[in-house]
Amino acid sequence: MIRVALPYHLRNLARIQGDVHLEVPPPVTIGAILDALEHRYPMLCGTIRDHGTRKRRPFIRFYVCREDYSLESPETVVPESVIQGSEPFLIVGAMAGG
To answer: What domains, with CATH codes, occur in the chain?
Structure first.
């Protein structure tokens, strides 16, 4: 069971409290996790990835085991600790400004 932690604004949009638990068939990749998340919560489609290109939106970041996976390919397999649910797949809204 994959544990996905979403930022407040996306949890609010999807009416979710706490982390999301998803079953993702192998291979468990970044893209497969996002596909499962958007399938379960269709209102999130277009908020994390662009509708047309399916690329990550500029102010969204992905963290896995304290490492930034934002620039990794959607086909990147996540570590075993995420697959087992002991570590979350974090989706974070990046901050900008000055």
So the answer is: 2-93 (3.10.20.30)
